[in-house]
Each structure stands twice: as structure tokens, then as C-alpha cells.
Design a protein that fits this description.
122 residues, 7-stranded antiparallel beta sheet, 4% helix, 46% strand
Length: 122
């Protein structure tokens, strides 16, 4: 058995595409994913699960219909299940997401080119 630490930030250097989360680890039925984000995402929600955003580098704003939250490097926020939200990054931000295996990044409805393939490991 080989034991090795995982550096989520280092994993983001292995790809360049944005809004395409990559799995770096799994714990029980939860996946730890890293992603590069820039610009506006789409309004969406996850009816059956919370979603955790942890900023690794840069800054991220998560908009809600009734406000927003700003996150800097080292900060995290849990979006409650069913809460409609839209991430936004003025400049590229590197994030880690924690969510159950099988969660689609655009929520309950297909939203075209922003919908990422699920379960892609890096």
C-alpha cells in the first residue's frame, strides 16, 4: 500500500479547463473535487444535498436570489440543499468542492455546456 498526501491546489495545475470539476479523493459516498472557475456560472440548486465550496486560491462570490457571500483563499461556505445559487469569479479562482458522489454541477436540470461530466478523477 502506498500512502501519499493529496495537495488539492497542486491538482489544479494538472488541467486548465474551467467549470469542469475533477475528483481528487472520496470519503464514504462523498467526493472531494477541485475546479478552476472564472466568470458567471448558471443559476441552479441541488434539491437533495448541501454543497461545500472551499477557496484554495483567488476569490469567489456565490450569489443567491436574496444576497451573496464573498469567499477568499482559505475560506469556505456550505450552500444549503435546495437553495438556488450562482457562483461568480471576476478572475480565475481555484476551489475544492465537497458533495455526494453523482451530484451534477448544474443541479437538477441540464444546463448545456456548463454541465460537466461526472466522476472524472485527476
Amino acid at each position: 500500500m502506498t500512502y501519499a498526501a493529496i495537495s488539492p491546489l497542486a491538482k489544479t495545475a494538472l488541467f486548465s479547463e474551467q467549470w469542469q470539476p475533477k475528483v481528487v479523493a472520496e470519503m464514504n459516498d462523498y467526493q472531494f473535487k477541485v475546479a478552476r472557475l472564472e466568470g458567471d456560472f448558471v443559476w441552479h440548486s441541488h434539491a437533495d444535498t448541501d454543497e461545500t465550496f472551499i477557496v484554495l486560491e483567488g476569490s469567489l462570490r456565490i450569489d443567491f436570489r436574496d444576497g451573496s457571500v464573498e469567499l477568499g483563499a482559505g475560506e469556505m461556505f456550505v450552500v444549503p440543499k435546495g437553495k438556488e445559487h450562482k457562483p461568480f469569479a471576476a478572475k480565475e479562482v481555484k476551489v475544492m468542492l465537497i458533495e455526494p458522489r453523482g451530484v451534477v454541477n448544474t443541479g437538477d436540470e441540464d444546463q448545456g455546456e456548463r454541465t460537466a461530466q461526472n466522476d472524472v478523477w485527476i
